[in-house]
Amino acid sequence: MSDSNFHYRGRFAPSPTGQLHFGSLVTAVASYLEARSQKGDWLVRIEDIDELRNIPGSADDILRTLERYGFEWDDDILYQTRRKQIYEDVLQALIDKKLIYRCICSRKDLRENNEMGQQGLAYPGTCEDKNHPEDIAHALRIRTSNQIIEFSDAIMGVYTQNLKQEIGDFIIRRRDGLFAYQLAVVIDDAFQNITHVVRGVDLLDSTPRQIFLQQHLSYTQPAYAHLPVAVDAQGDKISKHNGSGGIDQYKPVPALFAALRFLGQQPDPALTKASLNTIWQWALEHWNMNKIPAIEKIPYTD
Ligand SMILES: [Zn+2]
User: Fold this and answer.
1) How far, in Å, is the centroid of ligand 1 from the Cα of 105?
2) Ligand 1 centre and the CA of 140: distance in Å?
3) 181 CA distance to ligand 1 centroid (A)?
4) How far is CA 39 from the centre of its chain?
5) pTM of the full structure
6) How far apart are the CA of 149 and the centre of ligand 1, in A?
7) What is the 47 CA–ligand 1 centroid distance (Å)?
8) How does pLDDT run across 247-302, given as a tens digit for each residue?
9) What are the chain's domains?
């Protein structure tokens, strides 16, 4: 970067819905090594905004595992549930710009009436001009525009999406009153001065929504790198929910080795018996993001 003030800031943002598992370890390893290899900061954010999904004790559990695995983070940990007033203020700014409207459509309404978009159902704008009264249960949506959003992903290449046609006006605050992930993540990335986002490819199609919000909020757009996700034999993403991808909370080296191999870094087989320090030292010296396969799914068996 030519700007001498530039300072890389990366982050790892797990949801506290269970123990750290192989899929999230891969994201932690890649975001950490990329940040450290750029002499940058690496921050941890607990994305607990979807409170219905949180499992008590799981945030602390994830943090303890990261420590045992040898990760060191900068700054204080950010918890989204402590930032609701900030999200409320930003929502108000979007309301003032006349970008937000109330939507009373139920899931059933949407299933019956929607056209199929690339990502499933694109919201057709049913409630856009209805001006539903405040006292009916409603979600809040943001008006999208019929233009292509394009960005260049460091791993997956150029990605384009017509928000209006492929997603539709999207939800900013849910019917149950919880803020949508899309809003919270954009506000937090800006607040923490995140310059580079490294995360799983399952969030690739969310990125244009986030860029759209960044543009409306005059935030700087971070650079993005989306990693392949680990899938089981059926091609489903391994997750804490389907019980696959568990890692030994107390034996970091084999799991770190597997993560490095998953990320195409070709770790020396002797490292399976190395110390935690040695494997991290090797990883930092040899880290090369260009070696990460530019494919969406990689089978993983533990
Ligand atoms: Zn609606």
Assistant:
1) 4
2) 9
3) 19
4) 22
5) 0.94
6) 23
7) 27
8) 999 999 999 999 999 999 999 999 999 999 999 999 999 999 999 999 999 988 76
9) 9-82+228-299 (3.40.50.620), 86-151+158-175 (3.40.50.620)
